Amino acid sequence: MKTFTLIILGLAFAFVAKAQTSNVQPMDGPDCSNLFFKALLEKDAKALENLISNDFSVVGLQGQPIEGRALVQAVLQGIIVVDSGMLSAARTRSYGDVVVVNGMWDVRARIENNGFQGVLSYMSVCVKSGGRWKVVAVQFTPVQ
User: Domains in the chain, start-ordered, CATH in brackets?
Assistant: First the structure.
């Protein structure tokens, strides 16, 4: 009986742990954009990978394009680390299954151990495809 109880408890804990790590799907375009930033802040490479499209790209601070796989790997390996970030002034425009979100991101981060702190203007583009919202592009511009 004791063994049976331990097995049941083990299965219950495994189920709870799985439920806590389940992938949250965006409800709409703005939610998809917000979850992208949340994944960066939480250093959650798996959530980031699930949110971005196969052809995702981000335009970085120096104007360089970064492909999705490279971004996920950089977060996973600690090359890009967001220490804090606060979104504000978001403006959303919807075009059917395409949503464009502009706003400001007050961020403190490290890229290859080079610190950055400041305000970035951002634009994210989210698309609903196959019934799921995905981020297809993001651009960051430092605010002077």
Answer: 26-142 (3.10.450.50)
Which residues 6+ apart lie within 8 Å of 67 measured at CB? 56, 57
Tokens of 3: 């063994």
Sorted by sequence, the CB contacts under 8 Å of residue 48 that are 6+ apart come out as 36, 39, 40, 71, 72, 75
Question: 87-129 pLDDT, tens per residue?
Answer: 999 999 999 999 999 999 999 999 998 999 999 999 999 999 9
By DSSP bridging, strand 132-142 and strand 52-59 are parallel
Judged by DSSP in three states, 100 sits in strand
pTM score, whole prediction: 0.83
Residue 6: half-sphere exposure toward Cβ, Cα within 13 Å: 3
Q: What is the mean pLDDT of residues 38-55?
A: 97
